[in-house]
Amino acid sequence: MTAIARGRTRRTAWVTTACALAVTGALALSGCGGEDDPDAGTNGIGKLPPDRIQARTRAAADAASAVRLSGTVVTSGRTYRLDMRLKADGGTGSVTAQGTTFKLLRVGEDLYLKAGADFWNHADGGDGASGKLDGKYVKVPQRDPAYKKFSGFTDKGVLLDGLLTLHGTLATDGRHADASGTRTIRITGDHGSGGTLDVSLQGTPYPLRLVRAGRAGTLRFSDWGRNFTVEEPAKSETVDYGRQLPAS
User: Fold this and answer.
1) Which pLDDT belongs to residue 220?
2) What are phi and psi of 240, to 5 degrees?
3) Which of the ends of the chain has fewer CB neighbours closer than 10 A, N or C?
4) Is the CB of residue 167 less than 8 Å from the CB of residue 54?
């Protein structure tokens, strides 16, 4: 009886030890695999070549119903600071240029500009318009040069088409994280001189940060797909100038 008990005890101990070793080995292999694979737990686009990453992020941006865009854009020698929310049928937000901030609102094809007296005081014409335009939503005539200039800031398709393009030979430039901690893959054009774009590695591969070529500004993208409302301002808050706006 004693021999049998000892045999069973030894066999049980051996089985327990073997199981423990197997579990430890499995955990070790699992841990090593996770550490070695930078794409573990991501959407997988980090494994793609840079041209396909760019194509995927452009497709994601185009398909999104809405986006918030903030940062700076340098164009025609002027720096514009933007904070815009955009979707297919309109957009709203603020633009700062030359120390003056004004608001833009587009509802369908109708574009409104809202600014203080300082903005209008810089306008040409000397017709005393600044007083009645101060703090009002001024409807911009579609034939006015300002319409073409500013409506692009409120048009999701036009704005993203003009921005989400890197120039030169594409390459990847490692994994990073944005301000909120979201993991990203960075792609560059001509080693950065053609711009850089950080694309989310989590969930949908949306673009999150763009540094434009030629020091033409830096932009952040957020609130992808988060809907918002654009509606015509109240008549009491609106001025229909009826002709070309004062140049500013």
Assistant:
1) 97
2) -95, 100
3) N
4) no
Burial (CB < 10 A; 0-12, 13-18, 19+), residue 105, is buried
Distance CA 53, CA 70 (A): 22
Distance CA 48, CA 181 (A): 22
The pTM score is: 0.80
- The single residue listed with the structure tokens 């101060």 is 134
Query: Which residues have a Cβ under 8 Å from the Cβ of 51 and sit 6 or more positions away?
Result: 170
**pLDDT tens digits, one per residue of 217-226:** 999 999 999 9
Distance separating alpha carbons of residues 195 and 97, to the nearest angstrom: 23
Low-confidence residues of the chain: pLDDT under 70: 1-35, 122-130, 242-248
Strands (E), the chain: 66-75, 78-87, 90-97, 100-107, 110-114, 137-139, 170-177, 183-189, 196-200, 207-211, 218-222, 238-240
